[in-house]
């Protein structure tokens, strides 16, 4: 007779494997100063997104630019040239931010395209290790997506939460996602109120899909797109309690496939994010994501980007082939 402890032992082994895989991907930098150590003034621009007509947006973009410049000056006075340089680039008058807060790793929402007239709007939620110092990766993906979508569309790079680092245990739990989900829900609700006739999609990369899983029930959107996902923290699409169409994609060389898709309840935390979103058990509509790796989903010319563009436009993407 099999021991009743064997299933639990197997689950724990898989959870420990997940922790080891994560640890192997990043060696902690002991004693290094983090982005949160760089001071910044409190923002002066209104927190809530109001009207998005051209005049209102121009005023908001100008107000957030003032806040970015103030944060840049503070970073320079603090002696952090890297942060000051990053903020100087963000303060370019050609760039459009609907919100900005330079404190505690930084929060920002950058618009690509014309939000006032967009018929399709995509909100891009990033994963781990994304902050003001590493923001250009998120920006490049959002810009590539907006270019591919073309006229009549807008993309918002939503860095609205303190993302976990792959160097800390928070990457294995949904704690940061629990903090982020209400913020994402509020932002999307404000966007929906401002543009009630636009088609809204939320695109969730890596740990961002955990955020989207936590927020799903409160998001009034057409599509929820999970890519490079470690899981959502839920067993299946039905558990998300969303009316949105849920899509999932994973590149053939994405290392996230090697992270065990388990969820283990421990006395002090829940570790892991459960069912693989591209598995039949989860129940998402799986789209072809090509042969790319974890950072290649929004790479220009990639099958993943092509599929995501079709979803945002309300069209059907190419399905994933057998064995994908």
Any chance you could write out the topology, listing elements then pairs?
Layout: H1 5-25, H2 54-78, H3 81-90, E1 96-101, E2 107-113, E3 120-125, H4 135-149, E4 153-159, H5 175-194, E5 199-205, H6 208-215, E6 223-227, E7 245-249, E8 264-265, E9 270-271, E10 285-286, H7 303-312
Parallel strand pairs: 3-4, 3-5, 5-6, 6-7, 7-10
Antiparallel strand pairs: 1-2, 2-4, 8-9
Helix pairs in contact: 2-3, 5-6
What would the keywords be for this entry?
Rossmann fold, 7 helices, 2 domains, eight-stranded mixed β-sheet, 324 residues
Question: Overview of this structure, please?
Answer:
This protein is α/β, with parallel strands linked by helices. It has 2 domains: 52-97; 104-324, Alpha/Beta hydrolase fold, catalytic domain (Rossmann fold), CATH 3.40.50.1820. It contains 7 helices and 10 strands. It has an 8-stranded mixed β-sheet with strand order 1-2-4-3-5-6-7-10, with helices on both faces. A two-stranded antiparallel sheet has the order 8-9. Mean pLDDT is 90; it is low at 1-9 and 11-33.
For the sheet with most strands, the description reads:
8 strands, mixed
What top-tier CATH class of the largest domain fits best? Alpha Beta
Q: Secondary-structure element sequence? A: HHHEEEHEHEHEEEEEH
Could you say what the CATH architecture of the largest domain is?
Answer: 3-Layer(aba) Sandwich
Distance between the termini: 37 Å
* Fourth-tier CATH superfamily name of the largest domain: Alpha/Beta hydrolase fold, catalytic domain
Shape: globular
Pairing-aware structural class of the strands and helices?
alpha/beta
The CATH topology of the largest domain corresponds to Rossmann fold
Strand arrangement in the largest pleated sheet: 1-2-4-3-5-6-7-10
User: What share of the residues does DSSP label as strand, in percent?
Assistant: 15-25%
Residues in helix, %: 25-40%
Low-confidence stretches: 1-9, 11-33
Number of domains: 2
Count of alpha and pi helical runs:
7
Q: What is the arithmetic mean of pLDDT?
A: 90
**CA gyration radius, whole angstroms:** 20 Å
For the secondary structure, the number of strands is: 10
């Amino acid at each position: 007779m099999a021991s009743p402890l064997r299933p639990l032992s197997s689950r724990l082994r898989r959870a420990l494997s997940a922790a080891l895989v994560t640890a192997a991907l990043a060696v902690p930098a002991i004693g290094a100063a983090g982005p949160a150590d760089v001071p910044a003034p409190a923002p002066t621009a209104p927190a809530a997104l109001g009207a998005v007509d051209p005049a209102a947006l121009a005023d908001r973009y100008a107000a957030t630019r003032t806040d970015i410049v103030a944060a840049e000056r503070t970073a320079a006075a603090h002696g952090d040239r890297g942060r000051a340089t990053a903020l100087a680039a963000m303060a370019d008058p050609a760039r459009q931010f609907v919100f900005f807060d330079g404190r505690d790793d930084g929060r920002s929402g950058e618009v690509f395209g014309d939000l006032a007239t967009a018929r399709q709007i995509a909100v891009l939620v990033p994963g781990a290790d994304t902050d003001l110092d590493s923001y250009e990766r998120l920006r490049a993906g959002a810009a590539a997506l907006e270019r591919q979508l073309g006229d009549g569309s807008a993309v918002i790079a939503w860095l609205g939460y303190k993302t976990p680092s792959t160097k800390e245990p928070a990457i294995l739990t949904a704690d940061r996602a629990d903090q982020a989900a209400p913020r994402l829900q509020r932002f999307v609700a404000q966007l929906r109120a401002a543009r009630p006739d636009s088609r809204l999609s939320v695109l969730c990369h890596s740990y961002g899909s955990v955020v989207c899983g936590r927020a799903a029930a409160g998001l009034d959107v057409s599509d929820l797109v999970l890519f490079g996902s470690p899981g959502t923290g839920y067993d299946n699409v039905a558990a998300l309690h969303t009316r949105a169409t849920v899509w999932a994609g994973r590149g053939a060389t994405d290392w996230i496939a090697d992270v065990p898709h388990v969820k283990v309840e421990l006395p002090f935390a829940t570790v892991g994010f459960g069912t693989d979103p591209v598995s039949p058990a989860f129940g998402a509509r799986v789209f072809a994501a090509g042969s790319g790796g974890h950072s290649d989903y929004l790479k220009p010319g990639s099958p993943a980007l092509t599929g995501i563009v079709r979803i945002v436009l309300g069209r059907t993407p190419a399905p994933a082939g057998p064995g994908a």
